[in-house]
């Protein structure tokens, strides 16, 4: 989401006459687009910001802006805390960049912006094959560990005709894959439902693949599962964050489902959409997580067998309910649990990937492999990277590939019938 927000920032500034540079020493304006989902992301930002100070000392005319969730979280206080920062603007105020006057310092744009979903910003896309498309902003779920509802504000969905227009335009410009973006895409609420939005976009010629992130388990409806099944271009992959396998922890997290609810949905997904790849997020060491709760998560991972997970140590976030909970788990316990979770999932991932050996997969080719220039590289519909023993396949081609070898992070294969 932040990558796409950055594409919007560049879009707004280019329209205003700016050009982009990778050279910090020639920039008039440097924007940090920040993430505050975990403390580690924040630490990285502050150390980068510290390094920039030397450049600002050399060239006092240089302006430094902080955008994104840390900007929203810290607000004006950031200007006091880090005096070499000139502008602070939150994720709902990207449009204000067009009014930024780099000759004037110290401006703060942190207002809730109810019009965010109605007014589309220009986007300067980094990729010419795959495009992010925002369908909704903000989040209303208030999971007790999460800072997002405080930094990105309340949910607002974009009108479906704007989304349709954007995707149609992308198809005309040669884009083959779109990924619909939102903190909770399946609570999309506009003139039509999310399922019908998928069905509508499925009819746009030229687009080969449609993906969406992220789905919330509590809002995963039978209609959505049928839309995934019946829409030709909607890929057989869902990212469905479980967070924990323990009901008492899920309750403390305010996730709105039990482990049984979740596994029931996994069962339906696999029944209706055979070969669907399911990936997830797991948090290790949420406050009050006992050894028994942690073992429930281990059991869940073994039972569900995700294709892959992102797992994180719980991190205390400002404003959130969980930050004030008693029984915070000790850091070393969180680390040990996280290590075990990742180790177990690695074994499961490789096993799942091996099951694809000797099958034929449809690959959208992205270009030469980054690690081996004698090969092309692309992705399966289930979003797994495949390196193909043929370097001359044009970017954007869809080819059938026989999978010959499975690794943890990628597969290898040879084209069928080329
Ligand atoms: N809205 C999406 C969802 O509910 O899955 C994505 C939210 S967040 C950007 C992505 C992941 O970060 C979450 O699924 C969660 O696992 C993790 N996360 C959020 N807050 C966290 C925290 N305080 N500590 C550790 N992990 C966190
Ligand atoms: Fe955060 Fe929960 Fe909203 Fe996802 S659904 S952004 S985890 S509050």
Description:
There is one protein chain. The chain is an alpha/beta fold and 418 residues long. It is 33% helix and 20% strand. The chain is built from 12 helices and 17 strands. The chain has a 5-stranded mixed barrel. Strands 1-2-3-4 form a 4-stranded parallel sheet, sandwiched between helices. Strands 5-8-9 form a 3-stranded parallel sheet, with helices on one face. Helix 7 (194-201) runs parallel beside helix 8 and helix 11 packs parallel to helix 12. The longest helix is centred in the C-terminal third of the chain and has 24 residues, at 331-354. Residues 139, 141-143, 146, 148-149, 183-184, 216 line the site of iron/sulfur cluster.
H and E order: HEHEHHEEEEHEHEHEHEHHEHEHEEEEE
Ends distance: 37 Å
Strand order of the largest sheet: 13-14-15-17-16
Q: What best-fitting shape do the alpha-carbon axes yield?
A: globular
- Biggest sheet details: 5 strands, mixed, barrel
Tell me the radius of gyration: 22 Å
Q: What percentage of residues falls in helices of 4 or more residues?
A: 25-40%
Strand content: 15-25%
- Total beta strand runs: 17
Bound molecules: S-adenosylmethionine, iron/sulfur cluster
